[in-house]
Automatic annotation (TrEMBL):
Top-rank taxon: Archaea
UniProt name for this protein: Ubiquinone/menaquinone biosynthesis C-methylase UbiE
Keyword terms of this UniProt record: Methyltransferase, Transferase, Ubiquinone
Pfam families in UniProt: Methyltransf_25 (PF13649)
Domain Methyltransferase: residue ranges: 48-139
InterPro entries hit by this protein: Methyltransf_25 (IPR041698), SAM-dependent_MTases_sf (IPR029063)
GO molecular function: methyltransferase activity
Biological processes annotated in GO: methylation
C-alpha cells in the first residue's frame, strides 16, 4: 500500500483535515459525505465497516445517523484523531476503532451490512485483493471511490507525495466483477481536481464549484470527471 509511512506520521495525522477539508476543501468533504449516504441509504441500525477510516470523517457521520460503525486504519496516529472527533460529536461510545490491514481484515465472512472505502483505492498496490476482502466481510453492499485516468487528476498527480493510482471505467468494472460483486450505481464528479479547491477561500471555491458542476452535468460530463463513486452489491 502506497504512503503507509507518510500517513502514519504524527504531523500528517494532526493536520490532515485542516489541509484537505478547510477553506474550499469543505466542498469536497460535503460531496464525499453525500456520495456515501446516497450509496448506502438509511443507515439506522446497520452494521457498517469503514476501511481506511483515517480521521473518522465518515465514521462519525454514520454513527450520528444510527449506524453501528467500525472504523479500521493502518495508522495509529489517524485513529487517535478519529477517536477525538467521534468523542466531540457525541458518538465516542457508539464507534469502534481498530488498527489493522485492509488486506487481512480481522472479521468473519458477511459480518457487515455495508463496507465503505473512501480515499483508499488510489493508494492500493493490489486493488483486486483488497476488493476481495471488502466483499468477503460484507453481506450486502460495498461502496468505494477511485480517481479517474485521463482526467485533470493526472495533471498534478506527479506532485503528490506518493502519487495516485488512476483507474479507467473498464478497469473498475473488471475489479468489481472479479470480486463477485454486481455494480448497482456509479456517479462521477469534479472536473477540476481536488487540489484546486483546497488552496482557495470558500467564496472563490464556490464559484469554481458552480462552473465545475455545470460542466459535469452537460454532455460528456462523466467522461471529463476526475472522481468516481461506485456502489456494488454482493451477488
Amino acid at each position: 500500500m502506497k504512503g503507509q509511512e507518510w500517513y502514519q506520521a504524527t504531523d500528517v495525522a494532526q493536520e490532515y483535515d485542516d489541509k484537505r477539508f478547510s477553506r474550499g476543501g469543505r466542498l469536497i468533504d460535503r460531496r464525499e459525505k453525500e456520495a456515501v449516504l446516497d450509496a448506502i441509504g438509511p443507515v439506522d441500525g446497520k452494521d457498517v465497516l469503514e476501511i481506511a477510516c483515517g480521521t473518522g470523517r465518515f465514521t462519525a457521520m454514520l454513527a450520528e445517523r444510527g449506524a453501528d460503525v467500525v472504523g479500521l486504519d493502518i495508522s495509529a496516529e489517524m485513529l487517535a484523531e478519529a477517536r477525538q472527533k467521534a468523542k466531540a460529536s457525541g458518538v465516542g461510545d457508539a464507534v469502534e476503532f481498530l488498527r489493522g490491514d485492509a488486506g487481512r481484515l480481522p472479521f468473519e465472512d458477511d459480518e457487515f451490512d455495508a463496507v465503505i472505502a473512501m480515499r483508499f483505492f488510489h493508494l492500493a498496490d493490489t486493488p483486486a485483493a483488497y476488493l476481495d476482502e471488502l466483499q468477503r466481510v460484507s453481506r450486502d453492499q460495498v461502496m468505494f471511490d477511485t480517481f479517474k485516468r485521463y482526467s485533470t487528476r493526472s495533471i498534478y498527480n506527479w506532485a503528490l507525495p506518493m502519487g495516485s493510482r488512476l483507474y479507467s471505467r473498464s478497469e473498475v468494472e473488471s475489479l468489481i466483477d472479479g470480486a463477485g460483486l454486481e455494480l448497482v450505481e456509479d456517479s462521477h464528479d469534479f472536473v477540476l481536481p481536488y487540489g484546486f479547491y483546497r488552496k482557495i477561500p470558500d467564496s472563490i471555491a464556490s464559484t469554481l464549484r458552480s462552473i465545475d458542476t455545470t460542466l459535469g452535468v452537460g454532455p460528456g460530463g462523466d467522461a471529463i470527471a476526475s472522481v468516481s463513486y461506485w456502489s456494488a452489491s454482493v451477488e
